[in-house]
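thread from #wetlab-drylab

HS: before we spend reagent money on co-crystallization trials with FE2/S2 (inorganic) cluster, can we at least see a predicted complex? here's what I'd submit
DV: go for it
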Amino acid sequence: MVEWGMYEEINRLKSKKNALIPILHIIQERYGYIPENVVDILSKELNLSKAEVWGVITFYSDFRLEPPGRHIIKVCRSEACLAMGGQILQEHIKNKLGIGFGQTTNDGMFTLEDIYCFGNCACAPSVMVDGKLYGRAFPERIDAIIESILRKGVKGNGK
Ligand code: FES
């Protein structure tokens, strides 16, 4: 459910040209995903059809329709990363977490997402964990990152 403060953000931006996408980004940044009542609210506030709002949300893979896990792992699936072992890396991470792209582990700890180039091709393969970009992210390095997160979680500091 979108909170009152969010309406202030919407009102601040809604008169700008092409306001929908920036507003959706702000909402996702705030909530971690796009809550379902957002379609009705933005349709009304931006004078767009619900289909238009829904179309934008579902067209851009950046927007999530469900709450993510506490930690988000994004894996590059573009050419330079694939050429440097990215396919092996993808399978390794999927097997380690037991989930596919666009899914969240049952314990709510990790969400796995794909992306097509971070602009970090020279250091391929590239992965982003909780907003921090890692180059030369070979399986051993990813294992160490995930283990580090899990150790912190065990100590009671979920994030
Ligand atoms: S291809 Fe992976 S960062 Fe550019």
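DV: The chain has six helices and five strands.
HS: ok that's useful, forwarding to the group
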